[in-house]
Structures are given as C-alpha cells and as structure tokens.
Design a protein that fits this description.
This protein has 15 helices and 21 strands. It has 3 domains: about 10-155, Alpha-D-Glucose-1,6-Bisphosphate, subunit A, domain 3 (Alpha-D-Glucose-1,6-Bisphosphate, Chain A, domain 3), CATH 3.40.120.10; about 160-375, Alpha-D-Glucose-1,6-Bisphosphate, subunit A, domain 3 (Alpha-D-Glucose-1,6-Bisphosphate, Chain A, domain 3, 3-Layer(aba) Sandwich), CATH 3.40.120.10; about 375-475, TATA-Binding Protein (2-Layer Sandwich), CATH 3.30.310.50. The chain is of the alpha/beta class. The protein has helices spanning about 25-45, 60-75, 90-95, 130-140, 160-165, 190-200, 225-235, 265-275, 290-295, 295-300, 315-325, 350-360, 365-370, 390-405, 455-475; strands at about 15-20, 50-55, 80-85, 100-105, 115-120, 150-155, 175-180, 200-205, 240-245, 250-255, 260, 280-285, 305-310, 325-330, 335, 375-380, 410, 415-420, 425-430, 435-440, 445-455. It has a 6-stranded mixed β-sheet, sandwiched between helices. It has a 6-stranded antiparallel β-sheet with strand order 16-21-20-19-18-17, covered by helices on one side. The chain has a 5-stranded mixed β-sheet with strand order 8-7-9-10-11, sandwiched between helices.
Amino acid sequence: MKDMIKIDPFGFREYDARWLYPENINLNGIENLGKGLGTQIIKHTEKNNPRVIVGHDYRSYSEEIKESLKKGLTSTGCLVEDLGLSLSPMVYFAQFNLNSDAVAMVTASHNENGWTGVKMGIKKGLTHAPEEMKELKEITLNNKFTEGKGNEKSIKDFQKIYKQNLIKGNKIKKKIKAVVACGNGTAGIFAPDILRGIGCEVIELDCKLDWSFPKYNPNPEDMEMLHAISKSVKDNNADIGFGFDGDGDRCGVIDNEGNEIFSDKIGLLIARNLSTKHKKSKFIVDVKSTGLFNTDKILASNNCKTIYWKTGHSHIKRKVHNENALAGFEKSGHFFFNQPLGYGYDDGINSAIQVCHLLDNKNKKMNEIINELPITYQSPTMAPFCKDGEKYDVVEELVKQVQDLQNKKFKVDDQDIREILTVNGVRFSFADGSWGLIRASSNKPSLVVVTESPTSHERMKKIFDFIDSLLQKTGKIGQYDQKI
C-alpha cells in the first residue's frame, strides 16, 4: 500500500493547485506533481538542469509536502534552491533576484487548515494560467515524466534580502500609525518588520506564527478578521489597518474610523495617486471592480487608461505584463505593481506600502481621502451554487440572453443596457454608470454575481433582481452564499 499514489484531478485549478491533504492527495501524489512540474519546466526552458526556487508557508504539514515536491523536481533534473519559510511574493521576488528559471511555492493561501497547494510559474513575474495548468495536469496524471539528475541546496537569510528590497526607496516622512494583522499566518514575520522599516509605527495584531489559526483564517475578505482589525484601529486611535492573507500576496484595508474599504476603491485611490507622477499609464482591473475607474476625472486628466479584464491573479498579472501597465488591481485584494514600483506580481506588503505613500502625500486622514471618491452602492460578491460541470454552459447561455435583451431595448429600472463586456462572463452597464456581472467561479461550483450603482441602493438592488430572475429561469442555480 505504501506505493499508492493519490492525486485528485480536480485539484488542478485554473491558476494554481489545491487539495485537501491527505484526503485528496498524499505525499506520493505530491512527488508526482513535482515530477510533472519539473518535466514542464525542462520542456519550456529547454534546459536539462533548470534552477527552481521553492518555499513553503507556515502550516504544520507544508514542510513535508515541500520535501516530496522537491524529490519529484530533482528526479527530473531540476536544481532546487530552497528558501525555507516564505511568502509567495518572496518566492516570486527570488526568481528575479537570483535569476532562476522557475518557482514553486507550497501554500494553500487563506484556505482553512487541511488544505495544501502549490503556486508556480516559469516566466518571471507570471504564475501558471489555465493553459499551463492544463498541460501540467496532463503530464502529471499520465506519468509522462522526464528523468534526470538534479540536486538541491538551501538559500540562507533570503528573508532579509526580500525585506530590504521593499524597505529601500519606500521610506515615508509622516509617522503613520498602522495596525498590522496577519491572522497568525506567515506574513507575521514579514509585514511588521517591513512597515516599521519604511517608518510606520506598527501595532501588531495576531502576528505570532500559529499554524492552527486559533482566532480566524488569515483572509482579508473574512468578516471576523476585518472586525478584529477595525476594533484595534479604534482602540489604538490608528491611522490605518492592514490585514494580510496566509501567504502574503493580498492585503485588506480598514480606514482610521474602523471602516472596511473594498479593495477596488483602494486600487482607484492608489491609481489616482500614481497617475500624477506617471501620466499616460495603463491600469488593469478585474471585471468585479467598481465602474468608477471608467469615469474618474483625475485618471482622465492624466491621460491614463483602464482596461477591465478576467478575474484571477494569474489573468491580471499576465495582462499587466502584456499591456506593460503600471499596475493592476483585483477586488479580492491582489494588487500588481510593474516597474518602477515592483516586478509585476502580487505582493500584499507592497500594496500596503503604496497605501502608506498615499497617506504620506496627502495632508488628510484615510476616511477623508476615501470620501473624495463619488459614492457608489456596491453589492458584496455573491456566489449562487451551480455545478462545476454546468456553470460555464449556464454563463454562455446568459451572455446570449443579455445581448438579446440589449437588442430588444429591454429596460432595467428604466435604463437601457448601454455596453456589454464579455471577457469573463457578462458585465453589462447602463448610462448612469450602474452595472451588473455574472461569471463562473474559477475555483468553486458556483457563479459569481456583483452589482453596483452610483445612483441609488434601489437601482443596485433592481439590477440584482434582474440577474436573479435570469438565473432562476435556468433551473440550474442553488443557494446563494450571501444575498442582498
């Protein structure tokens, strides 16, 4: 029995790999994943002994998983360079700093304990997108492995190099008092040091590493985490609160009054701040993001352009790279900064640094800066159940229906559908800037629904009711995870 290989095919997601361990994958399965990844890296780099950077997050089982992954990688001929305990962005940074051929980070990000996974990439600053994941799945499940002779070595003290890279050139003049919350995840040994290093007064909240996550999952979209940060900001009279996810590539923001700010609005504020210095820049945002990017006067006056693109960190990262955009913002809190601000990948701590620069540049409190944005009524991200095998067909049918309704001049709350975007599901907009979105979730058996209106809460709700009526008619929709 000891040679049994367990590896659930569903673990190969759209842009990373995630499994429940050991239920859906065992160490032999992880070793095979390493063989598959090594084979893929050798194929794409055309090197017999490519150098691969690996790291792991602070879960009790991450290290044993990394050891099996390395075993698989070295069996194909890869030369593994192990950074030890890492954040995903630290591994991405190491690929540039050490000029390696590929990366593999063992993490399940903010998922509950019991989950494991790997974020991987070959081209610098980019992680696997659907095409690469499909190829990796094919190689791994069919045992089409290259054989070679590789080896491994440890890279010592790389944490210091990563920290120093973010600190240098990012010093702030103001003394910003920041609550730094890490949910006992890996960011706890990075974020406080870096933010202190740039000049913040840091109040630590759950920064002690504890893989059992005793309070809540380190997830900046988790209400429990946001409430804890909010309380700490108010108790300490802080200027800002930052919440980091388990592997440090996402950041959530709480203002000085303890209010959560949706990440797309933070993205717009950062884009405005950057646009004055970097005129004619491009920004990439995902289709779940606020419509305010399209109508923003400051971005327009600085000749900046916003492109709405597919949701998902690999998609936005790639689009930022391909368009040579200055930055990309995803509503889930993944932010991407290209040169001269970063290397194009998502780094939650760099995102927090950019928010500190925003506060440093203005003689205003965070809530005052937020209040400069026009008010919009935004729904939360809602996920109605829809089977994995049916969700993409359901969305395809809904795209046709919305296009048909536009042609028939159908009105929603007395508004004609003005524009339809179909890069990722269907996002339809109205003359007043209101919009609705229906897309298939990349990693769950569900759809994703979001609506926003700058006019009124009622209009936002009516757009949702319109979407819900289309969904119910399909007969293929189950319960919502939350509803307005």
